[in-house]
Write a structure and sequence with these properties.
It is found in: Cell membrane. By secondary structure, this protein is an alpha+beta fold.
Length: 803
Amino acid sequence: MLNNWLKIAFINYKKNWLSTIINLFGLTIGLTGFMLILMHWNDEESFEKWNPKKDNIFYFQTYNKKDNVYGAAISIPYAENALKRISEVQDYVLMMNDGSAYKMTTKIKTAYQQGGLSASDSFFNLFPFKLVAGSYKDVLKNDNNIAISTTTAKNLFGKTAVVGEIIKINTTNFIITAVYELPEGNSQVKPEFVFKPVDQIKNDKEQWGNFNYAGFFLLKKGADPRSFEKKFLDIIMMRAKENSKEGGMTPQRYIDTYGPNDTLLTPLDKIKLHAESTWFGKPDFKSIIILFTLSVLIVILSAINFINLKTAQASQRAKEIGVRKAIGSTKSSLVLQFLMETFLICVAAYLLSLALTELLLPSFNKFYDKEIVMNDWRIYYYSFAMVLAVTLISGLIPATYLANFKAIETLKGNFARSKHGIWLRNGILTLQLIISSFFIIGGLIVNNQVKYMMDKDLGYSGKQVLLINFSENNAKPWLKYERIKNEIKKIEGVADVSYGEAAPGSNRYSNSNMDYMDKSIFAQHGSMDYNYLQFMDVKLKKGRWLNPNLASDTIANVLVNEAFVKKFGWTDDQAFKNEVRPGFDNKPYHIVGIVKDFNVFNPRIDVDPIIFFHYRETEWKRYNVYNIQLKLKADDIDGTLKRIKTYWQNNVEPGYPFDSYFIDKKFAESFVKYQKQQTLFTILNAMVLMVALLGLFALSSLMIEQKLKEVAIRKTLGASDGTLIVGLTKQFLWITLIAVLISIPIGYYLMNEWLKDFAYRIDMPIWPYVLSLILLLILTFAVVSIKAYQATKVNLVKYLKYE
């Protein structure tokens, strides 16, 4: 019986070769996209899976109700009190300065080592990398202890047995207490060396408001993280009771004003995608879900093609089914036979998709900067499960439909003139065109939004502005800046020099509360040199710039941006009359100028309130001077760059790499994510249209073939070719019109939800919906009319000789 089924299947594949190829092509493309996106998703979910304590380690986040935002940091007093007062807590670790780099000197060599991490004592208790040498007991207990990776050990000493050796960083000697091997699995925590930020910890020991650390808590086995979150509210209240006395507030008013109002713990292996806010960047689970959904839609489109083509071929197999039923075949055996035929096509497509995925994987890895390989059993498991699902979806409907034919009716030969399956085919075709229309609408809106962000006036000019980062070996970095500023101006090709903390494209920033009377907001810090805002071509809205000839401009005078004024609810004139007290200082600051908003961090988010002040105005900000920025003349940029680099490496930081970038190019990197979304949406859009149009062509071919006798009769009665073409295509055009009209509210809702993530967004345009309708009508007419035109050339004798 099975042999007979296989013979019938291959006869039908050969007879309907175009439909077979289209089904194979569509399913192969759909399954390939599904597997690539699934591998990307699995790779993102695999972070921190190597850690044996991952189930009990949680990342700490704060929640500020007033601004409805999550914070990614914690202060030392909060962490210490959590250990003391919350019974679920077993240990914690604080991290800062991830990715730090130093010039290290050993008895063998001097080398520049990147990838360092500053952390508290318990780091290796929560992140137990494989120990190669030394011990993790008291590994960071002493101020001058350091643990290094095997890579760093080989780089500095040429071997890994280096416990007890000395590494000199700046003027401090560090003793190596452990050598570890970094995990092979994905991890956001992969330091090449680890040491304790002693001075920073001493300064922050009693400072509740210094949220300078990423916090990880190790809970006791079986402990409920929600219980931790509830008990942490008591610690928040304890701090509020202590600090509110000074300002004459109630503790609850203090919490509502300054926060945090609540906390959130996210499991270690979930922070890459599912945390609200992290030290390593904001997770973007939504983008993966969108891509995965789109890849599944392509597979569904392929299944729709299968259903449509199988039901359209029904008349060709009607007599076969009638004969089989007449000789005793049951409905269930017929269903199994048709399911087997579908399964064979699906398995063939699955094998082709595996080959195509392997072929495309290097390009996919390059696109996402990954190293994914096809060695995860889950990829094969889930993709084969998708094959089975497609087999059932695309096979069961036509199989049931075909198996329900009445033997007497089909043997009489009347089936071709019956209307069985028309509503089914039309309904499924409509669904296919709805999906196609949504892809066109979505693709046009995504392209429009990305173009809008790229063309938007950012409020400054970073063109030809070169930012050079200082190394981390500066005792007094502001003096270094002042020393080299005038010297570097003398280099041929340098037009101007300045410094700004809130530099576009930089990921180094800080913020704090700004208080006025009983109101408080959070604002970014913009310590700077006098000329920085003019240097960046920022526009002054009202007031004046800081003036180096006025002593008050390095004592208590500041500028703010429009967002700062708006957040307080002031008019411009009110801003000049009011003084604010920043959380980072104990004196009032007077606003002397308001600048136009300019986007520092990301084109997706709104401009934050920023306060600009001279770096000497606040003592601790002097130590945060981390860059010097140069505006280059346009005539010889390459030559100027070489001269600057030579000067820097010979006179400023010998032995350190020249860490620099052009601000406009660095800021442009913030667009890369959205450009990739745009590219992927365009590719998926093209795939959807190709699969849909090929299916439409095959379906229209089969349906028009069933009407060839009708065409022959109408042509004999004098109908013109144009009339016949319009008559044959009209049905498909109506289906297309209905599908687009149904897709419009769906597309509007989903794309509006997507646009909500952008502070700077387009108004929902009408033209993508109109263009989708016009484009699909044109494509439908073009595809169907090809076969309709061929039908007008029908051989009249062939179809009318027995009439």
